[in-house]
Amino acid sequence: MPISAALASAFMVAQAVLAAAPTPVAVRLSSNVAECPASAEVQSALRQVLGDGERSAGGWVLSYGRDLSVAEEERDASVLMELIDPAGVRLAVRRIPASSGDCPAVASAMAAVVERSLRTLGWTKGEALPEAARRPSASAPSTPTARQRGERLVLGLGPSIGSSPRAGTNLLLEARLRVLGPVFLRLGGGLFSGSDSQNVGSSGKANLTTRYFTVAPLAAFARGSLELAAGPSLLLSFDHGGSAALAQVGSGDREVLAVGLGLGVAVRLAARWRVGLGLEGYRVAVGADYFVALNGVRTVVLSPSPWQGIASAKLEFVAWP
Questions:
Q1: Which residue, 190, 224, 228, 247, has most beta carbons within 10 Å?
Q2: Is residue 261 classed as helix, strand or coil in its secondary structure?
């Protein structure tokens, strides 16, 4: 056989072998830590346990950094790491003790967590992940702790309907920040002003415009793609009232505080997108009265509704991390 033909045959065989050989698992790093451990230290530790996989933009992600939910003086004492699969599901979340003199040891501990987590999916070093692990089912359950720790900041936007004319039909904007464990602080409010009016006497009228905001500490618990949340809630309204066609025309401002409970349910659509439904009920606790002079008598107008409810539907986005 000519030498050129032999070389060509050998090259084709080598290509076929390489194409059939399994590709080591590629894990991309995402970190807000400049050092201890540095990215180079973590990459070196990963190569020792996983092999030299290509660090691509997709696939598996190892995210690690300081936990901003703990006290500032405690942040440098540990590293919070999360292993995220190609579908965006957090496979593992660990808090690893860290000190300035043990950076390589911290990197090795993180790599060991990654290796153990992948082995639970049937992976062995030097081989490709099983098909089921590389294409995880969208309905596969994940642990509530990992999901709650992973989603630190969630933003939501969608329509809302209030039982009183003041809340009315509105567009609700919410931000939910994890405080500790399963406890979140949710801040929200209607983007548009509500309004109400009341006829006074034969021709007079009292008018009101209002903006409302909510504050709620919620406990959220997840199972698979479903999350339930519940907790106390505060509704704060800022009213501006005025009168027209009366003997004495005037205006004034007031604040109304209502307390109640909030319930919510969210369903995951993708790695960062969810759809949520909310239902809240309130009882007015503090609020001044508006008065107008009618035939020389002080008359109460536009009293806040003693009970109020707000229902909402939101498209939610996991903004951080």
A1: 190
A2: strand
pLDDT tens digits, the chain, 321 residues: what are they?
454 554 455 445 444 433 444 444 567 787 777 777 888 888 888 888 877 654 444 578 888 887 776 677 677 788 888 888 877 777 888 888 877 667 888 888 888 988 888 888 777 766 665 544 544 443 344 444 434 445 789 999 999 999 988 888 999 999 999 998 889 999 999 999 999 999 887 778 889 999 999 999 999 988 878 999 999 999 999 999 988 877 777 788 999 999 999 999 999 888 789 999 999 999 999 988 888 877 778 888 888 889 999 999 999 999 987
104's tokens: 């390589």
Rounded (10°) angle between helices 39-50 and 103-119: 40
End-to-end CA distance of the chain: 61
Token reading at 136: 């995880």
Q: What angle do CA 194, 196, 200 make, to 5 degrees?
A: 160
- Which residue is it, tokens 């009183």? 164
Contact 290, 300 (CB under 8 A): yes
Cβ–Cβ < 8 Å for 283, 258 = yes
